[in-house]
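Narrative of activities, Objective 1.

The group set out to show that a structural description can be obtained from nothing but a protein's sequence at a throughput compatible with the screening campaign. Below is one input-output pair from the validation batch, recorded exactly as produced.
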Amino acid sequence: MMLDTNGGGLPARLRYLSGSFHVVSPGDHVVCAVSNAHIPLGNLRYWSHELQEAYGSAELAVQRYNEAHAAGRL
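Output recorded for this entry:
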């Protein structure tokens, strides 16, 4: 998986669904909710439809899930 942490074009706005996502506003990447790394749309594999967030890896997704669960957000 490639993460672009050096800028890039405009971020996309997505609506995260269970198993897919819908592009609300076009762009070439989204920002990881945990690491703030840019994730090219073609490499986006992990997100939460409950929290409406993208993640750069499975480990970061699990970390955020555990944090949100402990805080009562899930």
